[in-house]
Design goal:
The structure is a homodimer. A three-stranded antiparallel sheet of chain A has the order 1-3-2. By secondary structure, chain A is of the alpha+beta class. Chain A is elongated. Chain A contains five helices and three strands; from the N terminus they run ααβααββα. At the A-B interface, α1, α2 and α5 of A face α1, α2 and α5 of B. Chain A binds a DNA duplex through α4.
Chain lengths: 112, 112
DNA sequence: ACTAAATGCAACTATATGGTTGCCAATCTG
DNA sequence: CAGATTGGCAACCATATAGTTGCATTTAGT
């Protein structure tokens, strides 16, 4: 069962980073990072952008799995999903670890 | 000295994430994550893309500060720069922390 | 001096992205 | 029911992005 686990192994974190690569989307995530759920109208309230623009950004975030929306009544509420964030974090941790590793090996070599 | 420190306060991690949001660029970073320095020719050796395409990606990474290139002889060597990666990491740490925080507050509330 | 290697620069194409506007549908609320 | 909120859909625009090709330039080797 090397790849058919329940968590759908992340083959490529690039889409997640891509979704994070926009100011507006980052601010949306910030607003949702308190765990609360918010409607599109609410999320587009204090921005200069159109509601539609915000909607598009939310779709992008949703596609990347960073956010999840469900319709409740006439509004659609969005909530943050922490999993992809953890994934991105661990990816960066990996790069940083390799880097540190290389550094310490280099140091060991130099100091011999 | 609130903003003129040596670390060049990060006002917006979005560009860094944007630079990370591409498979090809991530693979370039991986190749460089051992701390070694590599030429463009070397970096475009085992890809299906053109050398020019790789060059462009390297420029993007360089603009985001993730990589640094210097010309040595006839080739230009690129090296990874860990600072922006640390920055991106700490940003994600922040979001995750807020999330966890909200969760524990919620738990405290529910369990009362 | 000549040739091969490694880049840089520019032009060009196709597609994705961010944003807008207009309009229609669903859902509350008085 | 009538009117106001909230959102979805579609068309459209401008710009950015990913990638290509062709050609000129610099540097290394022999």
């Amino acid at each position: 069962m090397s790849s058919a686990s329940g968590h759908a192994r992340a083959p490529d974190p690039a889409p997640i980073f891509a979704a994070l690569g926009d100011r507006t989307r980052l601010s949306l995530l910030m607003k949702l990072s308190d765990g609360q759920t918010r409607s599109i109208a609410r999320l587009s309230a204090d921005t200069s952008l159109t509601r539609q623009a915000i909607t598009k950004h939310l779709r992008v975030l949703e596609t990347a799995g960073l956010v999840e929306g469900r319709r409740v009544g006439r509004e659609s509420r969005f909530a943050l999903r922490p999993e992809p964030i953890a994934e991105a974090r661990s990816y960066l941790d990996g790069v940083a670890a390799q880097w540190d590793d290389a550094l310490s090996r280099l140091r060991a070599f130099v100091e011999r």
